[in-house]
Amino acid sequence: MTTSVVKALQEVRDPITGTDVIAAGLVRGLTVRDGRVGFVIEADDRPPRDLEPLRAAAEAAARTVPGVTRVTAVTTAHDPAPSGAPRAAPKPPSGHGKIDLGDVAAVLAVASGKGGVGKSTVAVNLACALARGGKKVGLLDADVYGPSTPIMMGLTDAKPQRMADETIAPPEAYGVKVMSMGFLVDAEQAMIWRGPMVMGALGQLLADVAWAPLDVLVIDLPPGTGDAQLTLAQRAPLTAALIVSTPQQVALADVRRGVNMFRKVNVPILGIIENMSGWTDPDTGKTSAPFGRGGAKMAADALGAPFLGAIPLDPDLAAASDAGTPPAACAPESAIGLRFLEIADLVGAGLARPLSKAGPRIVVN
Ligand code: ADP
């Protein structure tokens, strides 16, 4: 089926080069699986806006191929050529360098060595807590394969709006501007995306969304510390990073991987947060620690990174996440709500200080 899709795309002519979009090298990252087709329309010298008619034509052409059930095409660009009229901020991705977000004072990445440690839960509640503290906050859910922010922020029915100036207005909840692939593409469809498509789409979510003006943009990175995370850490203009870890002793290895990833791209570590740290039975008041306790703190100490606090294992937190009512916004006086507000204060103070790019020193005992 790939051959038929390529043939169909060869019928789409690029008006600038006069050749078809395949010969012009505009189609990248083509994937065909189970009738689902995905690709990026990308040009080194044209802004995504100019590529939109080609993207639409290529998508329509691919859809005519028998057996194709769904087509997803996104546009992205490198080094956009300056056009006559000034472009409304924010600017499109430029080169393989940093994406310019305009008036966004700080960009904070929330990362974890692996999935399921509560990274999204922390990112969501932190964003809400920072907004509660009076900051203008944005939250970008960069987890293309498992976006959970729309649910956690109570925005399952929200749809981003395209504005007259071609920027995207992000939905808002609890005073936070939110953008997630979950608003745009269903998870099953995104599963077939490969690296270039993911990066293209995330680049657009950074560059084409009307984030500014913001005090802080929180980016909930995909779990893990592989190439995708590294590329994103390179392209987003990160001010600092937070690493979320569970308390097991093995957390050290996970935290170290995260720290090393950000060191590679020269992003300072603002701190380590331990999640699912101990559990207090509300009936007996007894505390237990099913995942152990203190592993992330030990990792932070060993790596010379600040420890920002521990969040207990709390079934109410999981329920609130599923219900789209983050405690940092909806129950700020609860113990868990207060914990997030405390951590947000430390984060706010950390961002206000000049951050050392040297990264923490690894101490070997
Ligand atoms: P990640 O982003 O690291 O994959 P999530 O934030 O999606 O993790 O959390 C995974 C699951 O764990 C979710 O169901 C979430 O509600 C739950 N969870 C996260 N933190 C806690 C906590 N402190 N107590 C109880 N459940 C939690």
Q: What does this 3D model show about the protein?
A:
The chain folds into two domains: 75 residues, 2-Layer Sandwich (GMP Synthetase, Chain A, domain 3); 249 residues, P-loop containing nucleotide triphosphate hydrolases (Rossmann fold, 3-Layer(aba) Sandwich). With 365 residues, the chain is α/β, with parallel strands linked by helices. Strands 8-9-5-10-4-11-12-15 form an eight-stranded mixed sheet, with helices on both faces. Strands 1-2-3 form a three-stranded mixed sheet, sandwiched between helices. Strands 6-7 form a two-stranded antiparallel ribbon. Adenosine-5'-diphosphate binds next to helix 3 and helix 10.
Write the layout of secondary structure elements.
Layout: H1 2-9, E1 27-33, E2 36-43, H2 48-63, E3 70-77, E4 104-111, H3 119-132, E5 137-141, H4 149-152, E6 161-162, E7 168-169, E8 172-173, E9 176-180, H5 187-190, H6 195-207, E10 214-220, H7 227-235, E11 240-245, H8 251-264, E12 269-275, E13 279-280, E14 287-288, H9 295-303, E15 307-311, H10 315-323, H11 327-330, H12 335-352
Parallel strand pairs: 2-3, 4-10, 4-11, 5-9, 5-10, 11-12, 12-15
Antiparallel strand pairs: 1-2, 6-7, 8-9, 13-14
